[in-house]
Design brief:
By secondary structure, the protein is an alpha+beta fold. The protein has 27 helices and 49 strands. 21% of the residues lie in helices and 23% in strands. The strands form 12 sheets. Strands 7, 12, 15, 16, 17, 18, 19 and 20 form an 8-stranded mixed β-sheet that branches. Strands 26, 27, 28, 29, 30 and 31 form a 6-stranded mixed β-sheet that branches. The longest helix is centred in the middle third of the chain and has 25 residues. The relative contact order is 0.06.
């Protein structure tokens, strides 16, 4: 039951027969929940999306309505009907409660099996009366946007103040003068009208906060009610200037007090008049342990004067000397609406934390303020200028409230039970003119760190107290008000503000009745009523709308996906027409050539068609209105001469590819529907009818999962036993050849299917400045006959093309062939001859598919939904690999083919996978693809490779520079590069292969022994000229280290380091490169290389160090090059290079970095070197290690105190220094040097400069903590964005 805060954690459980009707279900729920049947809705509760109403037809049984029988749990939610809370059933209608409990308890009956309720909920000693429906309380709640409970409480108080509400109604909005969206009075007026006339249980406040200039982030800011009250009153006064309401706030809420000082010697008094909107009352005086017990005591303390004596004496103008004096406040005038603010939030100077004071402080129902006013002073002339209340700055309580409607704390605060005993009439006594009647109390539950506000407000129309807790409004008693005094040890809510109205005043008015509304308010009421009705109608439509995924194989745009939203009462014929328009098929396919069928998009399975059900409502066909469906719909199309075939439930779909061994082609699929209980023999006859092949010589191969080819040879075995599922793919071949006599895995059919399953289509962009001429790389479409030396050399030169999975174009002419220009023909012939062994009739065991060894790194497989292991390449074909997508187009009547959403998703998934390898080093003990002479070892293991010119349709690249390559993805990068040599025009060692990703980022592929298994169809590859990495080589990025520059890390060049090379050799190769590319002419003895970890300089590499032996090197390695002013001093690994910097407190400046070379890790040696370098006497020298990453930036305002100066250690490699490697930063100073004296202005100026400097370098500014966001209301529609602000 989610209709109230009290019941949201409870659960009702009903066990019903599946034949129970929905109407009976509603009756049973109404009886168990204690509600009147028909005043609530039931909705599905176990769906992640927006809940949908359960009802389709009251006469339907539970089993027909989508409920799952057999002991399964069906989760429902009991919700409001049309935005109104359920009506409570009369308690007398139920049994099981004695008279006393019936008198005390109003609302839903106690429920068995409740869960999640705190003890305070069920405790009769402290609980609110059950949340009453709006129709009974007559009041509307406010929805909490996130943490806007403070706003809701204040708005409800203002709404329940008749003088404020009526004045707001009398103000008329002029739309010609102001935008209604930004007008605060107009949006408050709308909100108050809705609070008075709406039928909803709660309404939103987003329009009001938008008029404040707030965005959605403000809803997550916690503020204090009193702070909001003042800011909002200021904003209203600004908006109401030059109107009748210009002085409304002052008339209702403003009082006056006198701030005075009186000389105790001569009696002279100096004073001024201040105004106030609220009176801030201290709960516990500073330094005291005892709090004031009542509001009266706190008011007395507020006006209690203090004596100024001793050093605090007052200079008397009359006595012309310092005298003892008395200083205090006196009230001169009280406002009509008196606001008292309790300062419950304080600061504990012992713990240095903000605290909340929960001390008990009572307040009377009627407060006589006459003892606190100075009658004589009220008549005194106001000779001094009146200023805003001095208490203004004291009264704000900034607290981080956390609004959590259903927290345990809130449950306690809201759980007040209704006291049935009628309150005894009070004895009437003469009332003072200064008597105030309490009518609103703001309650804060929680702590100083966060909490929740709600309001207890008395209605002036009936004298009843109500709790306004966000969207929940309930009746409460005077006893419940007294429980907010405070004083108990629990975490209950205690009042922080109180509003009282003068009892005797000419201002007293009643609430304006609806009939008495001004004309402009009546028109506003009508406008809001129409808007609410429209909203209600829209909700009703939503509640009865089926939303389901719709797919369509568009003849022009390929596979389209959309969402079909159709009313449950619309017929299938009407829904088909809607889908027809949604998919934009008008003018492309006639409407009578379209139909909707049940479709499983994941398996690409057509579950069933709906013959003869054109007039059936969609609600019945889809099984009701649900938030999500376990199936989709497909808008199927056909050509006018075709006929739709019926799809019956229980059938499986089979896509049949006919294989021609002679031409080595695999045809596009033919769609066949079969039954799982059919035998293989019956299935072959079914295929024979569809394809015209002979069933006697037919071989049927099922591709169950990726590369899992299974020959179906047992005649009486059923399709179910063979592993057929909803959607399947088979290859059939029927010929008189002897190929069927050999073992299947040795047959030509298996080789052809294996090749087909592993071939991908790549787009290769050739380099522009290729050494080979364009003529040498031109491809021609000329039939080239081969000799008989290779039995299957026509693989690439005759009709040997076949369909490729996920290929968007199927335009390859099976009779076209590929050849190269005369210059490259000989090499091409050699490649073709080598290729012959992989797929032709030759069964030479030497040339059989040898499985190439691969690294153990996981690669992404383009034909599966996730990564698969490299052992899929074994000839045994693992049966547990992931399921494969279907290959080739399916020739159904609608042209639905396998290039569907799922296939394209798989392709896109691979685009996000990036290669980060940047070394040609082997990974798992496998050999390099090149032997010592640079020859490929893979020539004998040649896998399928075919290239053709790129058409303009294939790529956005220049077609003249682009190749379309069909290649077996099990080929290694080395073999792939060798096959590209004729087209690039240089040897494979002279060009690099870059893989292009979706965002056009390029990453070099350099691992020669890796296969292309991570590539998928239509991946792009760029070829660039340049030396490729050899075995044991690493590509390295070289950066220059500039320790005293603002940006200490500057990129220089990319270079190559090799395993076994010394640091000096690498420097010798690097220096000419730097001279040519960076114009740096350096001496080898004046440069050093050192480790780079992000921007931190590390170990200095010595000339005799060897890569991979002394220095570990990896892919994408980065190294610092540092230019020295003198020959290298680092000669041994035992030495330590430290970067030092002098701090001068007298000038507030840091000196430049200077390097110190230490022979050991001795602190004494460091101090001696620093003393020698700086001239600071050894006994005065102090040092500290820098914090964070290089260059260890720190504010000059912090460095003198915040660093750990002169640590008591003797060596550098222990705590707290831990200086064990080169590159550590050490600051040092002269301990006798006094810090510069700064004025406040100089300090602020320096703070700004340091803040700006450190923000630019990305370092933390620790002296500027994040402040709480001030509450602001923007009168110009929103905050001005200051570009200089962070």
């Amino acid at each position: 039951d989610i209709t109230s805060a009290k019941t949201v954690n409870e659960r009702l459980t009903l066990n019903l027969p599946a034949s129970t009707t929905l109407s009976k279900l509603y009756e049973d729920v109404a009886h168990k929940a204690g509600y009147v049947n028909g005043t609530f809705d039931l909705a599905w509760g176990n769906t992640p999306e927006m809940v949908r109403t359960l009802i389709q037809s009251f006469s339907m049984s539970l089993s027909d309505s989508g409920f799952e029988p057999g002991g399964k749990r069906n989760f429902l939610q009991l919700t409001d009907k049309d935005g109104e809370q359920p009506q409570i059933a009369s308690v007398t209608d139920s049994s099981g409660l004695d008279d006393s409990s019936q008198e005390r308890f109003i609302g839903p009956l106690p429920r068995d099996g409740t869960a999640g309720c705190s003890g305070d909920y069920s405790s009769p000693s402290y609980s609110y009366s059950s949340i009453l429906s709006k129709s009974e309380t007559g009041y509307v709640g406010l929805v909490n946007q996130a943490m806007t409970c403070y706003l809701n409480s204040l708005l409800q108080t203002l709404f329940m103040t008749p003088e404020f509400r009526n004045a707001l109604y009398n103000w008329e909005f002029e739309e010609s003068e102001e935008d209604p969206v930004t007008s605060i009075p107009y949006q408050l007026q709308r909100l108050f009208v809705l609070l008075q006339t709406s039928k909803k249980r709660a309404i939103e406040t987003t329009d009001v906060t938008r008029s404040f200039g707030w965005d959605s982030s403000e809803a997550w800011q916690q503020h204090d009610i009193q702070e909001l009250c003042r800011v909002m009153f200021d904003a209203l006064e600004q908006k109401w200037k030059q109107t009748e309401q210009a002085d409304l706030i002052n008339q209702l809420y403003q009082g006056k007090l006198k701030d005075y000082v009186r000389c105790l010697e001569c009696g002279y008094e100096s004073w001024r008049i201040d105004t106030y909107l609220d009176i801030p009352l201290v709960i516990r005086p500073f330094g005291a342990s005892q709090a004031y017990g009542s509001v009266e005591e706190a008011l007395q303390a507020f006006i209690q004067p203090e004596t100024l004596d001793g050093p605090n004496q007052y200079f008397c103008e009359r006595c012309k000397k310092k005298c003892d004096a008395r200083k205090g406040l006196r009230f001169l005038h009280f406002p009509y609406l008196l606001t008292l603010q309790l300062k419950r939030f304080d600061f504990d100077y012992t713990t240095m934390h903000r605290i909340k004071l929960n001390d008990r402080m009572t307040f009377p129902e009627e407060l006589d303020m006459s003892p606190f006013i100075d009658v004589e002073d009220e008549k005194s002339p106001q000779t001094e200028s009146c200023t805003d209340s001095g208490a203004e700055n004291e009264g704000s309580c900034h607290s981080d409230q956390m609004s959590n409607d259903f927290s345990t704390d809130d449950c306690v605060d809201e759980g007040i039970c209704l006291d049935s005993t009628s309150s005894t009439e009070r004895v009437l006594k003469p009332k003072s003119l200064l008597t105030f009647e309490l009518f609103s109390v703001m309650v804060h539950s929680g702590s100083a760190a966060g909490g929740h506000y709600y309001a207890c407000i008395k209605s002036f129309s009936d004298g009843q107290w109500y709790s306004f807790n966000d969207q929940h409004v309930s009746k409460i008693t005077q006893d419940d008000i007294r429980k907010t005094y405070g004083g108990s040890s629990g975490s209950r809510g205690y009042y922080s503000s109180a509003f009282a109205r003068s009892v005797v005043s000419k201002h007293s008015v009643e609430y304006l009745a609806v009939d008495d509304f001004p004309e402009h308010i009546k028109s506003l009421v009508q406008k809001e009523k129409e808007s609410e009705e429209q909203e209600k109608r829209q909700r009703e439509i939503e509640r009865n709308t089926c939303k389901i995924k719709l797919f369509c194989m568009h003849p022009v745009k390929m596979m389209l996906e959309s969402k079909l939203e159709v009313h449950k009462d619309k017929t299938l014929r009407e829904a088909t027409e809607m889908a027809y328009k949604l998919m934009e098929l008008e003018g492309v396919v006639p409407l009578d050539c379209c139909r909707l069928v049940k479709y499983d998009e994941f398996h690409e399975y057509l579950e069933r068609s709906y013959e003869g059900e054109e007039d059936t409502p969609m609600g019945l066909l889809l099984g009701g209105v649900k938030s999500s469906y376990m199936f989709d719909l497909l808008l199927e199309t056909r050509r006018p001469e075709q006929v739709f075939q019926p799809y019956k439930p229980g059938e499986v779909m089979v896509k049949v590819h006919v294989v021609d061994l002679k031409s080595e082609t695999i045809a596009s699929p033919i769609s066949v529907r079969a039954y799982l209980n059919q035998t293989i023999t019956e299935f072959k006859q079914l295929i024979a009818q569809a394809t015209g092949l002979s069933a006697e010589t037919m071989r049927v191969v099922l591709e169950r999962c990726y590369n899992d080819l299974r020959l179906l040879y047992v005649p009486n075995k059923t399709l179910k036993a063979e592993g057929f599922f909803r959607s399947n793919k088979v290859f059939v071949e029927s010929s008189e050849s002897t190929d069927h006599q050999v073992a299947f895995t040795d047959s030509l059919l298996w080789k052809l299917l294996d090749r087909h399953g592993n071939t991908i289509r790549l787009l290769v962009l050739l380099p522009e400045q290729s050494p080979g001429t364009l003529a040498n790389r031109t491809l021609c479409q000329k039939q080239q006959q081969q000799g008989s030396s290779t039995s299957d050399s026509q693989k690439s030169s005759d009709a040997s093309d076949f369909e490729h999975i996920e290929s968007p174009t199927q335009e390859a002419d099976s009779n076209s062939s590929l050849c190269v220009a005369a210059d490259n023909r000989e090499l091409e012939n050699r490649i073709r001859a080598t290729a012959g062994s992989s797929g032709g009739a030759s069964s030479d065991p030497e040339n059989h598919f040898a499985c190439e060894e691969r690294s153990d790194s996981e690669v992404n497989n383009d034909r599966s939904t996730s990564s698969v292991d490299s052992d899929i390449l074994s000839s045994s074909h693992s049966s547990d690999t992931l399921c494969n997508a279907d290959s080739g187009p399916i020739q159904l009547a609608n042209g639905l083919d396998s290039h569907s959403i799922t296939s394209s998703r798989r392709s896109k998934a691979h685009e996000g996978k990036k290669e980060t390898w940047d070394t040609a080093e082997e990974d798992s003990g496998t050999d390099s693809e090149y032997d010592d002479n640079g020859k490929s070892k893979a020539e004998a293991q040649y896998l399928y490779f075919r290239a053709e010119p790129c058409s303009q349709d294939d790529s956005s690249w220049d077609a003249q520079k682009c190749l379309v390559v069909h290649v077996d993805k099990r080929i290694t990068l080395a073999a792939f590069k060798q096959n590209l040599e004729p087209y690039v025009g240089v040897t494979s060692t002279q060009f690099k292969v870059f893989r292009v990703y979706a965002n056009n980022q390029e990453f070099e592929s350099v691992r020669l022994n890796e296969t292309l298994s991570s590539f998928s169809d239509d991946n792009k590859i760029t070829i660039r000229l340049g030396r490729a990495l050899k075995k044991g080589e690493y590509r390295v990025k070289v950066y220059q280290l500039l320790v005293n520059e603002p940006e200490p890390c500057k990129f220089l060049v990319d270079t190559v380091f090799a395993k076994g090379m010394t640091v000096r050799q690498s420097k010798e190769e690097l220096l000419p490169q730097l001279k040519e590319q960076c114009k740096l002419d350096l001496s080898i003895d004046r440069v050093r290389l050192r480790k780079k970890t992000w921007k931190n300089p590390g170990t200095v590499f010595l000339d005799y160090h060897v890569y991979e032996e002394d220095i570990s090197i990896s892919s994408n390695w980065e190294v610092f090059l540092e230019v020295l002013n003198e020959p290298e001093k680092m000669k041994s690994m035992s030495q330590l290079a430290v970067l030092t910097r002098r701090w001068s407190p007298a000038t507030m400046k840091l000196g430049p970095f200077q390097e110190v070379i230490l022979e050991s890790s001795s602190v004494e040696e460091l101090k001696e070197k620093l003393s020698e370098m700086s001239g600071i006497p050894l006994e005065n020298l102090e040092f500290a290690k820098g914090r964070g990453t290089f260059p260890c930036d720190i504010s000059v305002l912090e460095i003198h105190q915040d660093l750990d100066w002169n640590p008591k250690v003797s060596t550098l490699n222990v705590w707290p220094l831990y200086i064990c490697d080169d590159g550590a930063v050490v600051f040092y100073r002269d301990s006798t040097e006094e810090p510069m004296e700064l004025s406040e202005d100089e300090r602020n100026e320096l703070m700004k400069k340091e803040s700006s400097r450190l923000l630019k370098t990305g370092h933390r500014v620790s002296y500027s903590p994040r402040k709480e966001k001030a509450l602001k209301i923007y009168l110009d529609g929103g905050p001005a964005k200051d570009p200089g602000q962070d």
